[in-house]
Amino acid sequence: MAEPIFVNGRFLTQPMSGVQRYAREIVRALDHRPGAADRYVLLTPVGADDLKLTNIPVQTVPGGCGHLWEQTALAWAARHGRLLSLGGSGPVLHPRQVVVIHDAAVFRHPDHFRRGYAAFHRILGRLLAQQAQLATVSEFSRQELATVLSLSPADITVAPNSADHLSAVTPDPAVIDGLDLTGHPYFVALGNLTPNKNLAVAVRALARLADTTVRLVLIGARPSKIFDQPAIQTDPRLVFAGRRSDAEVAALLGGARGLIFPSLYEGFGIPPLEAFVHGCPVIASDIVATREVCADNALYFAPHDDATLAVHMTRLLTATDPARRNAGLRRAVLYSWSRSAEILDDLLTSTWR
User: Fold this and answer.
1) 155 plus 212 within the same structural domain
2) CB-neighbour burial class of residue 224 (10 A; exposed 0-12, middle 13-18, buried 19+)
3) Same domain, 210 and 196
4) Which CATH number is 204's domain given?
5) How crowded is residue 68: how many other Cβ atoms within 10 Å of its Cβ?
6) What is the pLDDT of residues 98-127, one digit of tens each?
7) 34-65 as b/e, with b when 16 or more CB fall inside 10 Å?
């Protein structure tokens, strides 16, 4: 019998962000791979969410939670097989493990995190670089991780994000009325409200617009344990929407004049692809990762240049651009959860023959 492949299910106990989205969608895609039921086992802590998989069996592993569970109970439960860790961390003593590290933010921008969190994850990343086979989500992150971890880029596999999950949902238009957006032109900023998301520049750009009817909808939670909360000015045109379902996000993107993606640093950045899927124009900060994902299909501005951002917002308020919409749709289909799952499946199969 072939050696089993265990999947680290710690992500199913964590709040949703880009990392958890990646892990959930990759596991769902693996669930549809040939022979998944005989090859994979998802190991989860007590109290984990149910992914409602069709083929891959799920095994609950008691023994605490968080990093302690990962380094002890998970390591022991997976000792007789290979292990796939999709959330940026994994047990350092497991000898046959693929770990997906999404970016090098704790090395490049430790000021965006609480000090203990950043220090711990720098140490963990270095240990995993010595012990595990690494993968990441973009060519930019591959180069970044290779530099900070003293690896060759060829030693890190790229298995990108996608937005397939949002193309498969039926939009819920009730959210438009619920947020009092009916009759208002609006922009969306999508993602946890954390320092690297640089939302202050979007708020400053909004202040430059004379139109009192326009709204800026901020979708996402404000985490208090990992990140220091950003200071966001008060503007009556700001709408704090909190966390929203995929169906609500799809509806908000479908009706928006544009997505504003002002991040200072990203390993990939899923929201622009999600916007493209629903024909929503993208205004993005001109950083390497967003250029890699969006290519020429976004309007760009320097991360702190609220004046240029305001010019782009005004442009989208006054005119539509069907050609840009169609180009965005074509860009989105270049990324697929199933293709990325295949890349990781092949890596797990070929690394330890």
Assistant:
1) no
2) exposed
3) yes
4) 3.40.50.2000
5) 12
6) 999 999 999 999 988 888 999 999 999 999
7) eebeebbbbbbbeebeebebeebebeebeeeb
pLDDT of residue 232: 55
Domain that holds residue 64: 5-161+336-351
| Residue 173 shares a structural domain with residue 150 | no
Q: Which percentage of the chain shows pLDDT scores above 90?
A: 82
Q: Name, in order, each residue with C-beta under 8 angstroms of 89's C-beta and a sequence gap of 6 or more.
A: 10, 67, 70, 99, 121, 124, 128
CA distances from 320 to 171, 178, 217, 314 (A): 21, 25, 20, 11
Alpha-carbon distance of 332 to 337, in angstroms, equals: 11
Question: Kind of pairing, strands 133-136 and 258-261?
Answer: unpaired
Alpha carbon 273 to its chain centroid, in Å, reads 11
The structure tokens listed for 2 are: 């072939």
Query: What does the pLDDT look like over 316-332, one tens digit per residue?
Result: 999 877 777 888 889 99
Q: Are residues 142 and 232 in the same domain?
A: no
* Among the listed residues 347, 263, 267, 337, the one whose alpha carbon sits nearest the alpha carbon of residue 298: 263
Number of domains in the chain: 2
* Residue 224 predicted with pLDDT over 70: no
Give the SS3 label for residue 301: strand
pTM for this model (two decimals): 0.93
C-alpha atoms less than 13 angstroms from C-alpha of 227 in its C-beta half-sphere: 17
Q: Please indicate, yes or no, whether residues 136 and 121 belong to a single structural domain of this protein.
A: yes
- The tokens 């992914």 sit on which residue? 51
* Whole-number pLDDT of residue 67: 95
Same domain, 178 and 327: yes
Same domain, 279 and 177: yes
The answer to whether residues 222 and 183 belong to one domain is yes
Mean pLDDT of the chain: 93
